[in-house]
Design a protein that fits this description.
By secondary structure, the protein is an all-beta fold. The protein contains no helices and 24 strands. The strands form seven sheets. It has a four-stranded antiparallel beta sheet with strand order 1-2-3-4, with no helix packed on it. The radius of gyration is 18 Å and the shape is globular.
C-alpha cells in the first residue's frame, strides 16, 4: 500500500466521507472548499461551489448510496444540495451554525436529511440549538427538536431503519429520539467527558461511541440500549469506527479502529 499526502485545503479539514462503493471520497474544510477525490490514485476530480457567494466554513458533507446527490452543511446556516457532477440542485436557508448533516439510510429512497445546529443570534432573529429533519425533493421541513433539546448536539445520526435519531453531546450524554414525533426515547449517561464520535455497523444495530475521557464503548441498538463492551485507552479519542466487515458472511472481522491524541 502506497501512502498519499494530500494538501487540498487552506484551513483545517472538518470531514472526510467515502461514498458507498469506496471509489471516491469527499472532503470539506473551514476554507469553504468541498472536494471530490478518486480513491485509487487520490486525484482531485472537482469541487462543489454554491451559486453566488463563496460558502463559509463547511462542517459536514454527505453523499447518497447511489452517488447521485451530495449535501453540505456550512457555518453560515446554508444546507446545499448538489448533483454528483457538481450542479447545485437546492439551497435551504436552515439558520444557525450547521454542524452536521446526513442522508437517511433507506436505499433507493434517500429523500430526507438529518441536521443539527448551534444557536446563533442575529439582528433579525435568535435561532436556538436544534435537531431537524428535512425533505430533500421538494425541500420541506419535516421535524424540529428545539424546546426538548437540553443542550447543543455536536453530531446526530439516523438509527436503525430510520426510525430513531441518535445525538451526542459535550456533556457526555447520548440521547435517542423518535424520528417522526421528535419525542425523547432514551438517554444514556455514556461518558465522563465530551462525546466526540459516533459510528455504526452497516445494519446500525451496533453502535460505537468515543470520548475525551479516553474510552470507547460499544452499544446494542435494540430496545434496551445496553453497553456491550468498553475500551480504555491512554489518550483522548476523536473518533472510532467498527470494521465494515463485521457483518460479513465469510470471515467477519470483529475489529474497531480508534484515533485521537492531545489537543494542540
Amino acid at each position: 500500500m502506497k501512502p498519499y499526502l494530500l494538501h487540498i485545503h487552506d484551513r483545517p479539514l472538518t470531514m472526510v466521507k467515502f461514498n458507498y462503493d469506496g471509489d471516491f471520497f469527499l472532503t470539506c474544510g473551514k476554507d469553504g472548499e468541498c472536494c471530490l477525490i478518486r480513491s485509487d490514485d487520490c486525484t482531485r476530480v472537482g469541487t462543489y461551489h454554491p451559486v453566488g457567494d463563496k460558502a463559509g466554513a463547511v462542517f459536514a458533507i454527505d453523499i447518497t448510496m447511489d452517488s447521485r446527490y451530495v449535501v453540505t452543511a456550512s457555518a453560515d446556516g446554508k444546507l446545499i444540495f448538489y448533483t454528483f457532477e457538481g450542479e447545485q440542485v437546492h439551497s435551504v436557508n436552515h439558520g444557525g451554525i450547521l454542524k452536521y448533516v446526513e442522508f437517511n439510510q433507506k436505499p433507493g429512497e434517500q429523500n430526507m436529511v438529518l441536521t443539527c445546529n448551534d444557536k446563533f443570534k442575529s439582528s433579525a432573529e435568535l435561532v436556538p440549538n436544534r435537531i431537524m429533519v428535512w425533505q430533500f425533493q421538494p425541500p420541506k421541513r419535516l421535524l424540529s427538536i428545539d424546546n426538548d433539546l437540553p443542550m447543543k448536539a455536536t453530531k446526530v445520526k439516523w438509527g436503525p431503519f430510520d426510525e430513531t435519531l441518535v445525538s451526542i453531546f459535550e456533556e457526555g450524554y447520548i440521547i435517542i429520539w423518535d424520528a417522526v414525533k421528535g419525542t425523547k426515547i432514551h438517554q444514556m449517561d455514556a461518558h465522563k467527558g465530551p462525546v466526540t464520535g459516533l459510528n455504526f455497523t452497516e445494519d446500525r444495530m451496533l453502535m460505537i461511541s468515543c470520548s475525551k475521557d479516553m474510552s470507547a464503548k460499544l452499544w446494542s441498538m435494540d430496545e434496551e440500549y445496553t453497553m456491550v463492551k468498553s475500551f480504555e485507552t491512554d489518550r483522548p479519542l476523536n473518533d472510532a469506527a467498527i470494521s465494515p466487515l463485521y457483518n460479513a458472511e465469510k470471515d467477519p472481522k470483529y475489529h474497531i479502529l480508534m484515533g485521537g491524541g492531545q489537543d494542540a
